[in-house]
Amino acid sequence: MTDSIKRKGIERLPVLGNRLYAGRLEAELQKATRELATRAPSITVESMLGLVTGYRDNRRYDAALALCDIVESIDSTNTSAHYLAGTVHERIGALTEALDLYKSAGRGTSAQEGVRRVEKGIQERVDKAKELRDSKKTDDCITYCTGVLEEDHRNVAVRYFLATAYESKANLEAAKEQFGIILAANPKYTSARAGYDRVEVSLETEKCMKIDK
Question: What is the pTM of this model?
Answer without folding.
Answer: 0.78
